Amino acid sequence: MSPNNLIIKNASQVVTCSGFGAKAGAAMNELHVIENGAVVVEDGVISAVGPSEELALRDVPADAAVIDAAGKAVLPGFVDSHTHFVFGGYRPDEYAWRLEGVPYMEIMRRGGGIVNTMAATREAGRQELGKAGEGRLDAMLAMGVTTVEGKSGYGLDLETELKQLEVMAELDAKHPVDVVRTFLGAHAVPPEYAGRSDDYIDHVIGAVLPVVAGRNLAHCCDVFCEKNVFSVDQSRRLLQRAKALGLQIKLHADEISALGGAELAAELGALSADHLLQATDDGIDAMAGAGVVATLLPATAFSLKESYARARDMIEKGCAVALATDFNPGSCFTFSIPLVVALATLYMGLTPEEAVTAITINGAAAVGRAGQVGSLDVGKAGDAVILSYPSYRFIPYHIGINTVEKVVKGGRLVVDRAK
Ligand SMILES: [Zn+2]
Known about the structure:
22% strand, alpha/beta, binds zinc ion, eight-stranded mixed sheet
């Protein structure tokens, strides 16, 4: 008898998003929907998926819990593949300054910006960081997120970078949401290294990265590759070292300027390049050719009143696009999946089908877990969301509104908003 045996049956749609890798180009429109479908989970793992009437009794463990999903759509648990959800402090004054049009340099002079969060995160105790992180994971889970990527990068020193990653490891162990940990020691140049970004990269490569990798604290390594932050050469140096130490790699790329981050992601075989507001045609072609997931973060562009990334061009050129929230305390204080889907469909031209692919299987691919989560396929984790409505099309249609009624994690019902 397992508490992780479950059957979800009679669903108006089982939207499987079937696949074990990123879906590129036209394939993003293929959701593989089963009408009147069922999903069986045995010991936390999906053991059968198909039309309800075709599932034989022998396919279902005798002690399985039953969810009747009549009139409701079932999808894979969502994957938010880019967040910075563990941090100390808040920056509401800075938001107000931005609304007044205060330039970023002046905001920095007033003590805002990333250094503000760095100081608060260095100051914060583990318990405090964990408690705040846990509350955020609860809220994400209620919106259907069952796997989230979380980055360090608010310590910018060995001790605090490790603290952030360790807090995420603890949360991963105790919370239903799976946390994929990304080391982002090269998020910004800390004040101690002002004007010496090369020295800081040397320090990260020589003194921080080996400890992170040695203690298995991160699955991925990321870098803020941007003009006046870390150059393409510095980013390459760091990411090559990370790869050699066994980490998968990601980049904050071409957000503010077309520096060549997309091209670098393709050259190094990164899982994903993220932001990409300024990515060039050559960069997009390179990502498509190398199978790098283009992770787009429309809530950040919205929040900063920037133009959106060229999602349509990327899909037409054969890229796999993922959508994520970029939740962070500065440029984008939201982890709202409904908002991200609304922006992507209204302003970036994604179809409802492409948006669903972008928050499921392509999000999973962007964090290196397309083999384990992101679709309702036999052998994958029993992570599913059940909407209050009969079709996945209600997700974009209900603008900014949470349409998720139930969330199942590893075959266990962990959220029930119908109650
Ligand atoms: Zn980010």
